[in-house]
Amino acid sequence: MMTTLSGRSVLLIIGGGIAAYKSLELIRLLKQRQAKVTAIMTKAAAEFVTQLSVASLTAEKVYTDLFSLTDEVEMGHIELSRAADLLVVAPASADLMAKMAQGLANDLASTTLLATDKKILIAPAMNVRMWQHPATMRNLATLKGDGVRVVGPNDGEMACGEYGPGRMAEPVEILAAIEAHFAGSAVPLAGATATRPLTGRRVLITAGPTHEPIDPVRYIANRSSGKQGYALAEAAVALGAETILVSGPVHVPIPPGAQMMPVETAAEMLKTVESELPVDIAIFAAAVADWRVADAADQKIKKGSGGLPDLKLAENPDILKTVAGAKTKRPKLVVGFAAETENVIANAKAKLAKKGCDLIIANDVSADKGVMGGDKNTVHLVSASGVESWPELSKQEVAQRLMAELARRLGAKS
Ligand code: CTP
Question: Which of 5, 96, 121, 185 has a CA between 20 and 30 Å from the CA of residue 147?
Answer without folding.
Answer: 5
